[in-house]
């Protein structure tokens, strides 16, 4: 039977069994297949791949693998300029927006806290997630590699970290979001934008103590929830500082910016 040799580099090895990491893999070629189907059959979602070489030549996902091919598979490049080669990933989205699978609810809340447009529902099925990602040009965040193998998904990322705090740090680093953080600008419950609102406009909706102690209020443009800088505000600011611990520029910006806070959803 004909064979090809495949080698995965850097963090793409996260998707491989231990015995296949960092070594050339001999793969039996039983039928004509695209290079995309080949790498996904080995466990690596196409959304994680940025560059493919066949026998040293740059190729796209539609390349039909030939017997004897030597295939090299590379992840997203952060600092190396590979512009003369064929990048197989689409260009980055101009505005980073996200949709998250059902297992990443806390990550969704943290991304909203940092001001990022983040869709999440705990009953989205895989087909719905893939459709939303494609139709609304949202980055699909998931811990289901099978979901990222769907052909409709062009912008997706497999979240490696287990804890929500580490997950949001990972996403901020991976998509270079530090300079785009706008804390307290979105509703934690529905993802809507917050806008300043006169106290008089929401006075009848406020608890008696809140009427006396606070003068600045914000309203969600989508669900009409009222926010103010309550007793939780300092705790949330500390949490944001923790979430962006790996992004010093964002921390500086956070200290200097005057932003709205709000009572979190109950």
Rg, nearest Å: 22 Å
Helix vs. strand class:
alpha/beta
Fraction in beta strands:
15-25%
How would you characterize the largest beta sheet? 5 strands, mixed
Helix content estimate:
25-40%
Count of DSSP strands = 12
Domain Mut7-C RNAse: 96-239
Domain Ubiquitin Mut7-C: 1-81
Protein name: Twitching motility protein PilT
Organism: Sphaerobacter thermophilus (strain ATCC 49802 / DSM 20745 / KCCM 41009 / NCIMB 13125 / S 6022)
How do the strands and helices of this protein lay out in sequence?
Layout: E1 3-8, E2 25-28, H1 35-41, E3 49-54, E4 57-59, E5 70-75, E6 98-100, H2 105-113, E7 118-119, H3 126-135, E8 139-142, H4 145-148, E9 156-158, H5 164-174, E10 194-197, H6 199-202, H7 208-213, E11 217-220, E12 226-227, H8 233-243, H9 248-256
Parallel strand pairs: 1-5, 6-7, 6-8, 8-9
Antiparallel strand pairs: 1-2, 3-4, 3-5, 10-11, 11-12
Helix pairs in contact: 2-5
Could you list some keywords that capture this structure?
266 residues, Ubiquitin-like (UB roll), five-stranded mixed beta sheet, four-stranded parallel beta sheet, 12 strands, 27% helix, elongated, disordered C terminus
Structure description:
A hairpin with a 2-residue loop joins strand 3 and strand 4. This protein has 9 helices and 12 strands. The radius of gyration is 22 Å and the shape is elongated. The chain starts with a strand and ends in a 10-residue tail after the last helix. The chain has helices at residues 35-41, 105-113, 126-135, 145-148, 164-174, 199-202, 208-213, 233-243, 248-256, and strands spanning 3-8, 25-28, 49-54, 57-59, 70-75, 98-100, 118-119, 139-142, 156-158, 194-197, 217-220, 226-227. Strands 2-1-5-3-4 form a 5-stranded mixed beta sheet, with no helix packed on it. Strands 7-6-8-9 form a 4-stranded parallel beta sheet, with helices on both faces. Strands 10-11-12 form a 3-stranded antiparallel beta sheet. Helix 2 packs across helix 5. The protein is an alpha/beta fold and 266 residues long. It has a domain at 3-75: Beta-grasp domain (Ubiquitin-like (UB roll)), CATH 3.10.20.30.
């Amino acid at each position: 039977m004909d064979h090809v040799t495949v080698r995965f580099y850097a963090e793409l090895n996260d998707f491989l069994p231990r015995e296949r990491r960092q070594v050339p893999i001999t793969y039996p070629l039983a039928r004509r297949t695209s290079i995309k189907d080949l790498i996904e059959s080995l466990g690596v979602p196409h959304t994680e791949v940025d560059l493919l070489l066949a026998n040293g030549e740059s190729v796209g996902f539609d390349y039909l693998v030939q017997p004897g091919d030597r295939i090299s598979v590379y992840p997203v490049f952060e600092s190396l300029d590979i512009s003369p080669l064929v990048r197989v990933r689409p260009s980055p989205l101009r505005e980073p927006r996200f949709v998250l699978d059902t297992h990443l609810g806390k990550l969704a809340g943290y991304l909203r806290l940092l001001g990022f447009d983040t869709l999440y529902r705990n009953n989205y099925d895989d087909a719905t997630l893939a459709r939303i990602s494609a139709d609304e040009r949202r980055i699909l965040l998931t811990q289901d590699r099978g979901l990222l193998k769907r052909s409709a998904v062009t912008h997706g990322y497999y979240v490696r970290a287990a804890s929500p705090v580490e997950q949001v740090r990972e996403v901020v680093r991976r998509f270079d979001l530090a300079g785009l953080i706008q804390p307290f600008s979105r509703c934690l419950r529905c993802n809507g934008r917050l806008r300043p609102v006169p106290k008089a406009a929401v006075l009848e909706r406020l608890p008696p103590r809140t009427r006396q102690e606070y003068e600045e209020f914000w309203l969600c443009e989508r669900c009409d929830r009222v926010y103010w800088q309550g007793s939780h505000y300092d705790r949330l600011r500390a949490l944001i500082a923790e979430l962006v611990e790996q992004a010093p520029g964002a921390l500086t910006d956070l200290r200097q910016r005057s932003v709205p806070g709000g009572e979190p959803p109950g």
